[in-house]
C-alpha cells in the first residue's frame, strides 16, 4: 500500500508523467531539500522540475502532511524563490486571542487550492520554486524575544533570496519581518489592508503589541512613508482625529466607507503609480474583511471589505516589486466552520500569483 501511495504522489507532484517523483529505472527519488543534500543546487537550473501541489486526481486531499497547499516541507530557504512560513504568535493581541492557531488552520484549508489561477492567468508553480518552511519557533512567554526570533528567522530567509509569504499570527509579527526586509531592501512601500491603522504608540505602557507595528516601523525608518497605503480602515475610535498620525506621515488612508459598493480596480491603478518600481510589502489583516465573511478574528469591525474587493487589491499589485507578504489575525476558535481560514488560504495563493517572475498567460 505504501508503494502505491508513493506512486500516486509521484504522479500528482510531477504533473508530467511522474518524472518528478521517480529516478531512472523506476527508483523513488529522495525529496529535494528534505533528504537530498544536492536538492537545493539542482533547483537552481531553470529547466529543473519545480515543486507542485499534488493533484486530487491522483492523491486524495485528506492524504499527506499538513503543509501549505500540500507542498514539500523543508528546513532551509536555500534554492527557493518563495516560501510559506507560519508565525504562530498571539501574545500581542488586545482583545480575542487564538491567532497562534492561524497558521495550522490556514494550512488545513489550503488543501482545496489548485496550482493555476484561471482568473489572472498566473502559473506560479511553473515559474517559481516554492515550499513550506514550517513555523518560526516563537517564545509565547516573551513578546520582545519572539520579535527577535522572528527577525532572525526572516533575515536568513531574505538573505537566501527567498520571498516570504507569512501565515500569522497577530499583526505584531509584521514589525520584526519588516526589520529584516528593510535590512536588505532599505525602506519599503506598504500595501496594508486592515480595519485598523495599527499606528498606536502605547497601550498599558507597552510600545509593542498588535496595535503598534507600523508606528514602530516609522520610528525605525523601515517604511518609505510616501509609498504606504492603508485600505479598509473603519470602526469606532477614542477620538475624531484617529487618522491624523498616518496622514501626517504621508500615508494614503482609504476608509472602508469609501470602498462600499464599488470596484477597487481604479484605486489600485493609483496605488501602482504611487508604488513605482521600488520594493513593496503586502500586509493583509483578515479583519479588513467584513466579519460576515471572516468572523474568525480577534478584533472584528462591521461594514468591511468583501472578498472580491480583497482579490482586486491583491491582483492590483501585479507588476509591482513585491518582496514579501503576510496574512495575519486569523483566530480559528471564533470560526469553527473554517471559512475564515479558507479565505486566508486563497488570499495567500493570490499573493503568490502576483510575485515578480510569475508566468502569466
UniProtKB/TrEMBL annotation:
Cofactor note: Binds 2 manganese ions per subunit.
Enzyme class: hydrolase
Catalytic activity: taurocyamine + H2O = urea + taurine; 3-guanidinopropanoate + H2O = urea + beta-alanine; 4-guanidinobutanoate + H2O = urea + 4-aminobutanoate; L-arginine + H2O = urea + L-ornithine
Residues binding Mn(2+): 171, 194, 196, 198, 285, 287
One Pfam entry name: Arginase
Coiled coil, from the record: none
Keyword tags: Arginine metabolism, Hydrolase, Manganese, Metal-binding
Biological processes annotated in GO: putrescine biosynthetic process from arginine, via agmatine
Region spans: Disordered: 16-57
E.C. designation(s): 3.5.3.1, 3.5.3.17, 3.5.3.7
Membrane-spanning segments: none
A GO term, aspect molecular function: guanidinobutyrase activity
UniProt cross-references to Gene3D superfamilies, sorted A to Z: Ureohydrolase domain
Pathway: Nitrogen metabolism; urea cycle; L-ornithine and urea from L-arginine: step 1/1
Biased composition (Low complexity): 25-35
Cofactors required: Mn(2+)
UniProt record similarity statement: Belongs to the arginase family. Agmatinase subfamily.
NCBIfam families: agmatinase
Role, per record: Hydrolyzes linear guanidino acids to form urea and the corresponding amines. Displays specificity for substrates having a negatively charged head group and short chains including taurocyamine, guanidino propanoic and butanoic acids. May protect cells by detoxifying potentially harmful amounts of guanidino acids. Metabolizes L-arginine with low efficiency.
Official protein name in the record: Guanidino acid hydrolase, mitochondrial
Species in which this protein is naturally found: Balaenoptera musculus (Blue whale)
Amino acid at each position: 500500500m505504501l508503494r502505491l501511495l508513493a506512486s500516486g504522489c509521484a504522479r500528482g507532484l510531477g504533473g508530467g508523467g511522474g518524472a518528478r517523483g521517480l529516478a531512472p529505472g523506476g527508483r523513488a527519488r529522495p525529496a529535494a531539500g528534505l533528504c537530498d543534500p544536492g536538492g537545493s543546487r539542482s533547483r537552481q537550473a531553470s529547466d529543473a522540475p519545480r515543486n507542485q501541489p499534488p493533484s486530487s486526481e491522483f492523491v486524495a486531499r485528506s492524504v499527506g502532511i499538513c503543509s501549505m497547499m500540500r507542498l514539500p516541507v523543508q528546513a532551509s530557504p536555500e534554492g527557493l524563490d518563495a516560501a510559506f512560513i507560519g508565525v504562530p504568535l498571539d501574545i500581542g493581541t488586545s482583545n480575542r486571542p487564538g491567532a497562534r492557531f492561524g497558521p495550522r488552520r490556514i494550512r488545513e484549508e489550503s488543501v482545496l487550492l489548485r496550482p493555476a489561477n484561471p482568473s489572472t492567468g498566473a502559473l506560479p508553480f511553473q515559474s517559481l520554486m516554492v515550499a513550506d518552511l514550517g513555523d518560526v519557533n516563537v517564545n509565547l512567554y516573551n513578546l520582545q524575544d519572539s520579535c527577535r526570533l522572528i527577525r532572525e528567522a526572516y533575515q536568513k530567509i531574505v538573505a537566501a533570496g527567498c520571498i516570504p509569504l507569512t501565515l500569522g499570527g497577530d499583526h505584531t509579527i509584521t514589525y520584526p519581518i519588516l526589520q529584516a526586509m528593510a535590512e536588505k531592501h532599505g525602506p519599503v512601500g506598504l500595501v496594508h489592508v486592515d480595519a485598523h491603522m495599527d499606528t498606536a504608540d502605547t497601550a498599558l505602557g507597552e510600545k509593542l503589541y498588535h496595535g503598534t507595528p507600523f508606528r514602530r516601523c516609522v520610528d525605525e525608518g523601515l517604511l518609505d512613508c510616501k509609498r504606504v497605503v492603508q485600505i479598509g480602515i473603519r470602526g469606532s475610535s477614542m477620538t475624531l482625529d484617529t487618522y491624523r498620525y498616518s496622514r501626517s506621515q504621508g500615508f494614503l488612508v482609504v476608509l472602508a466607507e469609501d470602498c462600499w459598493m464599488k470596484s477597487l480596480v481604479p484605486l489600485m491603478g493609483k496605488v501602482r503609480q504611487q508604488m513605482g518600481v521600488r520594493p513593496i510589502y503586502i500586509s493583509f489583516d483578515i479583519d479588513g474583511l467584513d466579519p460576515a465573511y471572516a468572523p474568525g478574528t480577534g478584533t472584528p469591525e462591521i461594514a468591511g471589505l468583501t472578498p472580491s474587493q480583497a482579490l482586486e487589491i491583491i491582483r492590483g499589485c501585479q507588476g509591482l516589486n513585491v518582496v514579501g507578504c503576510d496574512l495575519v489575525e486569523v483566530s480559528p476558535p471564533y470560526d469553527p466552520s473554517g471559512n475564515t481560514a479558507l479565505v486566508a488560504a486563497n488570499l495567500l495563493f493570490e499573493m503568490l500569483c502576483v510575485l515578480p517572475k510569475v508566468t502569466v498567460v
